[in-house]
Amino acid sequence: GEATPKGPFVPTQADYQKVYDAIADRLANETDYDDGSYGPVLVRLAWHASGTYDKETGTGGSNGATMRFAPESDHGANAGLKHARDFLEPIKAQFPWITYSDLWTLAGSAAVQELGGPKIPWRPGRADGDIAACTPDGRLPDASKDHRHIRAVFGRMGFDDREMVALCGAHSLGRAHADRSGFDGPWDFSPTVFTNEFFRLLVDEKWNQRKWNGPAQFTDKGTSTLMMLPTDLALVKDKAFKQHVERYAKDSDVFFQEFADVYVKLLELGVPFKSKPEDRFVFKTSE
Ligand code: DDH
């Protein structure tokens, strides 16, 4: 018969699930890192790629993946995220049709799910930009600051109080590294499992200023092995924030649902989708 003309490759949900599965496999196999998982640093890469969004100018956000370039890759807030970008290079080589900006956000969704968190529905549609689209330094939050700074930075992205607190629950995962941010230590006892433990500890533990030469941070009275950043404690010092911290500490299901909704929103800030929200894919988590 007639040879069918070959158009451009149009990936389907099944193709994106293959990318998800490859990320999940690599997460399961590359355990010689930090507390045994690259998952937390992937969650942070997706967040820092997206959290540069400015609703007034429509600049920044995950569309573009401009953190591939200096100066953005060298912004202080992005120290250490090269580990996450490098982790994803073999995936990009295996699926060259996916853009970096779709890959980084898909990896954030995959990491939350693979670490035991809620489903993070995701859709493609991001294009990689060039160096001219790099955002100016200073758009991501500074951990040494207070509640006013949190509201200013996340308000610029378009989030309300409830969403700000839910997003910060990602600190259930991973740790701070003295050679990256200057801060040091994990927030909770299970840094590779997504839970509401961050909120429970904020409410239940007594947090004292750590005595050390590093930047001001807090340590738990109980074991002295955990840490909180000044911005984390701002979530219980501010009454309006604290009300949400208490809700999430009490009810893990509520936290999972509200976190999922707002992390989806974060990953989509400023992206000029042709698809609709109801077209999002819900990926199968690995066994
Ligand atoms: Fe964060 N975060 N984050 N964070 N973050 C750090 C690590 C991780 C702030 C500062 C820091 C979010 C919000 C804030 C994750 C996810 C998210 C570190 C340590 C600092 C500092 C970095 C290092 O030394 O390696 C501040 C300030 C805020 C704020 O809200 C004011 C949000 C919204 C998220 C998200 O994902 C939705 C994750 C995960 C990590 C652990 C990374 C790792 O390597 O482990």
Automatic annotation (TrEMBL):
<keyword id="KW-0812">Transmembrane</keyword>
<keyword id="KW-0349">Heme</keyword>
<dbReference type="GO" id="GO:0046872">
    <property type="term" value="F:metal ion binding"/>
</dbReference>
<keyword id="KW-0560">Oxidoreductase</keyword>
<dbReference type="GO" id="GO:0005759">
    <property type="term" value="C:mitochondrial matrix"/>
</dbReference>
<keyword id="KW-0575">Peroxidase</keyword>
<dbReference type="GO" id="GO:0004130">
    <property type="term" value="F:cytochrome-c peroxidase activity"/>
</dbReference>
<keyword id="KW-0809">Transit peptide</keyword>
<keyword id="KW-0472">Membrane</keyword>
<comment type="similarity">
    <text>Belongs to the peroxidase family. Cytochrome c peroxidase subfamily.</text>
</comment>
<keyword id="KW-1133">Transmembrane helix</keyword>
<dbReference type="GO" id="GO:0005758">
    <property type="term" value="C:mitochondrial intermembrane space"/>
</dbReference>
<dbReference type="GO" id="GO:0000302">
    <property type="term" value="P:response to reactive oxygen species"/>
</dbReference>
<dbReference type="GO" id="GO:0034599">
    <property type="term" value="P:cellular response to oxidative stress"/>
</dbReference>
<dbReference type="GO" id="GO:0020037">
    <property type="term" value="F:heme binding"/>
</dbReference>
<keyword id="KW-0408">Iron</keyword>
<comment type="function">
    <text>Destroys radicals which are normally produced within the cells and which are toxic to biological systems.</text>
</comment>
<protein>
    <recommendedName>
        <fullName>Peroxidase</fullName>
        <ecNumber>1.11.1.-</ecNumber>
    </recommendedName>
</protein>
<keyword id="KW-0479">Metal-binding</keyword>
<comment type="subunit">
    <text>Forms a one-to-one complex with cytochrome c.</text>
</comment>
<keyword id="KW-0496">Mitochondrion</keyword>
<dbReference type="GO" id="GO:0042744">
    <property type="term" value="P:hydrogen peroxide catabolic process"/>
</dbReference>
<feature type="domain" description="Plant heme peroxidase family profile">
    <location>
        <begin position="35"/>
        <end position="287"/>
    </location>
</feature>
